[in-house]
C-alpha cells in the first residue's frame, strides 16, 4: 500500500478561469498527482485545489503550482472577501494513508525551503510544521494580510520568514504546513446583514469561547451573509453539531440558515455521523449500505 | 456486467441461532450467492437475510433456504410480535443491476412454482408478481396470519394459492414476489405504551391517509413501543422525512424517539439524502467524499 498524502493549496484567484487552469495544469504535468476536487469563489476571489498522490508526486506538483501562481497572480491588484497574504496563500499537507503527521511536517519543511530558495518568496511554516508556538495558528500567521506584511516584513522580527527573503513582491508570501484533515464549511444565512454572520462566527469559534476545533469568520458572499469555517477536528466537533448551533444562533438573531457549502471534500465518517444523528440510528456504517456491501463481495462467480 | 438481484427472505425464527444458521448455510452452499446482511429479532421471532448474486445463484440458494426453513420451523408452535403466515414467510426478489422488475417477477413465478410443486407448500405471489390486484399488497395477502389461513385455505376461493396445494401444514404458506428496493426501518419510542406506537403507525401509514409509500405497525419490542415500517419508495418519501414526522407525532403524544433501527441494508442515496437535508447541503454526493474520490483515481503510479 503506497503512502498517500493530500495537499489542499489555496490560491488568491477565484475569477479568471484561465489562470486557475494554468495553476492546476502545472501540478498535473507531474505523473502520479491527482486532482480530487476544485472550488473557486469569485467573492472570496480564491480557489481551493485538492490534490492527492504519493508524497513525491504531490510535493513536486504543488511546487510547480505555487511557482505558476506566483507568476500569474499580483496581490497589489487582487481584492476579495477572504483574508490572504500570498498568490499561493496556504499550502497544507495532510496524511491520508501510510504516513504520519510528523512525516508530513518534514515534507512541508522540504517544500517550504525549496519555495523560499528557488522562488525567492518568504515562507512561513504553520500548524504541525510551525517553528514557534505563535505560528501554529493560520489566522495568527496571516493577521493583517498582504498589505500589512508589506509594511512589516523587513522591520518586525516577529514577521521574519522561516524560509526565503525578508522582502516581499507582488506574489506575497506562502504559508506552508502540515495538519490533520479539516472540513472547510460555509453556512449561508437568509440575510444580507454581514454583521449577523460576524456575531454568529464570534459565538461559534473556539478562540472566543465557542465550539472546540471551530474557526469562523463572517463574510459577505453571493449576496448573502456567510459564516465561513474551518472545522479542524470533525470527530470531536462534528459538522452537524456546528450546523445545529448556527441554526440556533441564527434563530436568536431572527434569521435562518439558507444552505451550507462544502469546500473541497469531506471524510466519509462525517457523512455517516450526520445521517446517524439525524435518523437517530446509532452505529450507522458502510456495512449498512447496499452499494458498499455489494462492492465488497465477489459478484463474478456463476458456476 | 453480470445481472445482479437481491433476495431478502423473512423467516419466522428469530431465537434459535442453530436453525437460522442452517437456513443461511443451505443457501450459501450454492456457489455465487452472497449473504450481504442478517438481522434476527427475538421479540419479532423473525430473521431477515439479505442475499445477492446472479439470478441463477440467488434463486437456487433461496429455494434451498425455503426448503430448510419449512423442515425446521413449526408454525403451530411459533409465537412472535410480527405477523406471519409461513416458516419462510416472505420471499421478495429485487432488481439491482442489469435486470428489470418485470424480469424479477418472471423469476419469482419460476421460484414460486418450484416451491409449490416440489415442497408442496401453498404459494401466494405478491407485488409485481401478483396474479390479481387484491394480492399486490403483502399485508392483504397475509391478513389473519397462519392461524386464519389454516381455517380458510380449503374453503375460501379468495385464499386459493397461486402455486402448490390448497392445504397447509406446520410450515405454513410462502409469499413470493418481486418489488423495488425498500427500506425496513423501525423507530423505538421512549415509552412502553404500545398503543401510542399503534396510533403513530396509523397516522404515518399511507393506507390510513399518512405518508405515501409508508407501511407501519405499532409493536412491542425490546421492552419499548416500536413503530415498525417498510418504506417502499425512499426517493418519494425519504427515511429522514418519516423520522421527522414520527418525532412530531411522538411529541404530540408526550413521548420521544429513543432510537431507530435499520433491518437489512439501506441504499446509498438514502444516506446522502439524510445527511444533505440535516446539513442543508444541497447536492451532497459521493463526489464530495474523500474516500470515494480517492478510490476512483489511480494511486499506483509514482514515475
UniProtKB/TrEMBL annotation, chains A, B:
Pathway note: Amino-acid degradation; L-histidine degradation into L-glutamate; L-glutamate from N-formimidoyl-L-glutamate (transferase route): step 1/1
InterPro entries cross-referenced by the UniProt entry: Formiminotransferase_C, Formiminotransferase_C_sf, Formiminotransferase_cat, Formiminotransferase_N, Formiminotransferase_N_sf, FormiminoTrfase_cat_dom_sf, FTCD
Domain (Formiminotransferase N-terminal subdomain): residue spans on this chain: 3-180
Top-rank EC class of the record's enzyme: transferase
GO terms under cellular component: cytoplasm
SUPFAM superfamilies the record matches: Formiminotransferase domain of formiminotransferase-cyclodeaminase (SSF55116)
UniProt-listed GO biological process terms: L-histidine catabolic process to glutamate and formamide; L-histidine catabolic process to glutamate and formate
Enzyme Commission number(s) from the entry: 2.1.2.5
UniProt GO MF annotations: folic acid binding; glutamate formimidoyltransferase activity
Keywords, comma-separated and alphabetical: Cytoplasm, Folate-binding, Histidine metabolism, Transferase
Domain Formiminotransferase C-terminal subdomain positions: 181-293
Compartments reported by the entry: Cytoplasm
Cytoplasm among keywords: yes
Protein's recorded name: glutamate formimidoyltransferase
Organism field: Phototrophicus methaneseepsis
Higher taxonomy: Bacteria, Bacillati, Chloroflexota, Candidatus Thermofontia, Phototrophicales
Amino acid at each position: 500500500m503506497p503512502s498517500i498524502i493530500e495537499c489542499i493549496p489555496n490560491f488568491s484567484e477565484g475569477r479568471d478561469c484561465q489562470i486557475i487552469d494554468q495553476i492546476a495544469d502545472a501540478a498535473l504535468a507531474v505523473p502520479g498527482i491527482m486532482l480530487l476536487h476544485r472550488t473557486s469563489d469569485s467573492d472570496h476571489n480564491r480557489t481551493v485545489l485538492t490534490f492527492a498522490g504519493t508524497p513525491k508526486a504531490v510535493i513536486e506538483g504543488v511546487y510547480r503550482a505555487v511557482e505558476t501562481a506566483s507568476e500569474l497572480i499580483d496581490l497589489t491588484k487582487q481584492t476579495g472577501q477572504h483574508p490572504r497574504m500570498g498568490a499561493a496563500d496556504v499550502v497544507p499537507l495532510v496524511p491520508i494513508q501510510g504516513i504520519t503527521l510528523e512525516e508530513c511536517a518534514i515534507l512541508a519543511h522540504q517544500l517550504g525551503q525549496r519555495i523560499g530558495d528557488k522562488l525567492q518568496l518568504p515562507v512561513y511554516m504553520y500548524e504541525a510544521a510551525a517553528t514557534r508556538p505563535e505560528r501554529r495558528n493560520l489566522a495568527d500567521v496571516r493577521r493583517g494580510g498582504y498589505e500589512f506584511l508589506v509594511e512589516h516584513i523587513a522591520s518586525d522580527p516577529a514577521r521574519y520568514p522561516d524560509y526565503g527573503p525578508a522582502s516581499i513582491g507582488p506574489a506575497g508570501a506562502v504559508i506552508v504546513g502540515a495538519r490533520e484533515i479539516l472540513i472547510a464549511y460555509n453556512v449561508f444565512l437568509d440575510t444580507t446583514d454581514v454583521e449577523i454572520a460576524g456575531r454568529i462566527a464570534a459565538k461559534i469559534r473556539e478562540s472566543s469561547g465557542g465550539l472546540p476545533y471551530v474557526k469562523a469568520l463572517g463574510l459577505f458572499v453571493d449576496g448573502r451573509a456567510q459564516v465561513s469555517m474551518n472545522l479542524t477536528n470533525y470527530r470531536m466537533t462534528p459538522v452537524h453539531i456546528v450546523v445545529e448551533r448556527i441554526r440556533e444562533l441564527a434563530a436568536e438573531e431572527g434569521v435562518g440558515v439558507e444552505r451550507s457549502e462544502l469546500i473541497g471534500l469531506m471524510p466519509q465518517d462525517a457523512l455517516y455521523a450526520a445521517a446517524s444523528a439525524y435518523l437517530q440510528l446509532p452505529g450507522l456504517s458502510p456495512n449498512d449500505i447496499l452499494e458498499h456491501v455489494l462492492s465488497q463481495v465477489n459478484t463474478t462467480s456463476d458456476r
